[in-house]
Amino acid sequence: MTHSFTPGKSEGTTILKLAGPLTLSTIFGFQNEFRGQTPQVMIVDLSESPYMDSAGLGLLMNYYVSAESHGRKLLLAGANERIESLLEMTKVHKVLKTFPTVDAAEASL
Questions:
Q1: Which domains are assigned to the chain?
Q2: How many whole angstroms separate alpha carbon 65 and alpha carbon 74?
Q3: Those residues with Cβ within 8 angstroms of residue 103's Cβ, 6 or more apart along the chain or in another chain
Q4: Which of 1, 51, 71, 74 is the most interior residue, by most CB within 10 Å?
Q5: What is the DSSP string of 24-53?
Q6: Could you list the residue ranges that cross the membrane (predicted)?
C-alpha cells in the first residue's frame, strides 16, 4: 500500500490518498505518520483501496475517536462496495461519514 497527504481545497483540510489494501500487514508502515496528522478535517480517499480488514477499520476508528475528542473531523471518500459492506456489517457506517468522492466530502464542509 502507498499513501500521500495533500492539502484540501479548504484551509485546515488534508486529504490522505490510499492506494492498495488497508490491512494489518500494510498499516504498520504508516499508522504513526497517520496518527501524527492533526488537521481540522482529514478526508481519507479510498478510491484506490480495493479492501480493508478489521485492523484497517480499527485504525480509522481510533483516528476518528481521537479527532472527535479534539474537535476535528474524519471523513471517508470513494469507498468501493466491498469496503462499504464492511462498514455496514460492523455498523461503523452510522459513525463514520462516507462520501462518493473527495469533492463531495469537501463540499459537505
A1: 2-107 (3.30.750.24)
A2: 9
A3: none
A4: 74
A5: HHHHTTTHHHHHH---SEEEEEEEE---B-
A6: none
